[in-house]
Amino acid sequence: MPQSEIENAVLSKAKDPQSKITIIVPAYNVEASLGNVLEGLRAWRDRAEIIVIDDASTDGTAQVAESAGYRVIRHRTNKGYGAALKTGIRAAAGDMIVMMDADGEHNAAQISCLLDNFGDNDMVVGARSKGSHFPLIRRPGKWLLGKVANYLAQTDIPDLNSGLRAFRKDVAKLFLHILPNGFSFTTTLTLALFKEGYNIGYVPITT
């Protein structure tokens, strides 16, 4: 089969709504909130692979996930939020990756909104709408970062670093080598996809 046909076949499979889904939950010292997050994901257990990445927590984070019957991958040392997501992406069996935070900020019921609006996108981001919680101390920095990102991307980005998003695994893996191990993982992924001309969609969510 010619290379172009192979690429088209991979693209079609990845965007097929019946493609395998992997939900990645990066977790670090979230013993208190993780149980509720995983309970919310229970409805997805028959439809998706769910992986909790324990980033060398010092509390009972890993035990909470294991006792609930979820697959857990543990880091031996604390590597960072982005590093945990990279581990999950590399381990994922799914063509489609959904990532969500373990601190209770996101509602698992909103995952369907991401996937239902995927269409011909390469990534769909849950854009935090009015009424979502933002710590006051972070707002000036987020505003400035957003302005810089909009300038670099030459477009208005509704939510630069939302932690609830769905994307094609094959696209994300192209950028793993440049994605940081810290919290700027999501910001860098967004800008990288914009820069390379990939399609990014946004759906409103409340956190």
Overview in brief:
The chain has 207 residues and is of the alpha/beta class. The protein has helices at residues 3-15, 31-40, 61-67, 81-91, 111-116, 139-153, 169-173, 185-195; strands at 21-27, 48-54, 71-74, 96-99, 123-128, 165-168, 200-205. Helix 2 (31-40) packs parallel to helix 3 (61-67).
Topology of this structure?
Elements: H1 3-15, E1 21-27, H2 31-40, E2 48-54, H3 61-67, E3 71-74, H4 81-91, E4 96-99, H5 111-116, E5 123-128, H6 139-153, E6 165-168, H7 169-173, H8 185-195, E7 200-205
Parallel strand pairs: 1-2, 1-4, 2-3, 5-7
Antiparallel strand pairs: 4-6, 5-6
Helix pairs in contact: 2-3
Q: Can you describe this structure?
A:
Helices cover 38% and strands 18% of the residues. With 207 residues, it is α/β, with parallel strands linked by helices. It has a 7-stranded mixed sheet, with helices on both faces. Helix 2 (31-40) links the parallel strand 1 and strand 2 (48-54). Helix 2 runs parallel beside helix 3. It starts with a helix and ends with a strand.
Helix coverage percent = 25-40%
List how many beta strands DSSP finds. 7
Shape: globular
What's the total helix number?
Answer: 8
**Structural class category:** alpha/beta
- Give the overall average pLDDT: 84
Can you write the helix and strand succession as a string? HEHEHEHEHEHEHHE
Low-confidence stretches: 1-15
The portion of residues forming beta strands comes to 15-25%
Largest pleated sheet: 7 strands, mixed
Task: State the separation between the terminal residues, measured CA to CA.
Answer: 46 Å
**Rg estimate, integer Å:** 17 Å
Which strands sit side by side, in order, in the main sheet? 3-2-1-4-6-5-7
